[in-house]
């Protein structure tokens, strides 16, 4: 059994939980709301994967290509390490979400978190990246961060 947690900044649709539960391979869904929406899904990895789940969530919410993810956790089972990177002069939350979406798509990056109060202030944001040590290392993480910066992130 695998699991994924996505935290998004978007208007939630009340029927998303029922929709996700209807997908073949999904075994449990929990959706919580604080300021952001936390979507936690357990699934059978023989029938489903995290990219399909993200696609299904975004399609259901009609998000399209709008960056709305503020952090994620793929709940890795392999050996991981953590690297904290500092992003200075963040343009806006939209740029931050785009940056997180880029990191989500990279094989080996398993979890990304940040203090959302820092993101709101935009001056200096510490982002913790958890990664698979068999696929990435600190130098590769630094290069990935540099290559995936969006306009407005300096």
Give a structural overview:
- By secondary structure, the protein is an alpha+beta fold.
- The protein contains 5 helices and 7 strands, in the order βαββαββαβαβα.
- It has a 7-stranded antiparallel β-sheet.
- Strand 2 (26-33) and strand 3 form a beta hairpin.
- The chain is globular, with a radius of gyration of 15 Å.
- The model has no long low-confidence stretch (mean pLDDT 90).
State the separation between the terminal residues, measured CA to CA. Answer: 39 Å
Overall shape: it is: globular
With strands numbered from the N-terminus, the spatial order across the biggest sheet is 2-3-1-4-6-7-5
Low-confidence stretches: none
Mean pLDDT: 90
Instruction: Report the order of strands and helices.
Output: EHEEHEEHEHEH
């Amino acid at each position: 059994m695998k699991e994924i947690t996505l935290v998004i900044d978007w208007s939630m649709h009340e029927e998303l939980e029922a929709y996700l539960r209807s997908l073949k391979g999904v075994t449990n869904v929990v959706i919580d709301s604080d300021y952001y929406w936390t979507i936690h899904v357990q699934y059978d990895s023989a029938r489903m994967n995290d990219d399909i789940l993200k696609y299904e969530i975004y399609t259901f919410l009609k998000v399209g290509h709008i960056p709305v993810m503020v952090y994620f956790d793929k709940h890795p089972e392999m050996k991981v390490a953590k690297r904290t990177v500092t992003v200075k002069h963040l343009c806006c939350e939209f740029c931050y979400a785009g940056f997180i979406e880029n990191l989500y798509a990279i094989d080996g990056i398993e979890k990304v978190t940040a203090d959302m109060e820092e993101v709101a202030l935009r001056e200096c944001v510490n982002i913790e990246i958890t990664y698979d040590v068999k696929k990435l290392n600190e130098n590769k993480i630094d290069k990935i961060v540099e290559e995936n910066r969006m306009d407005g992130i300096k």
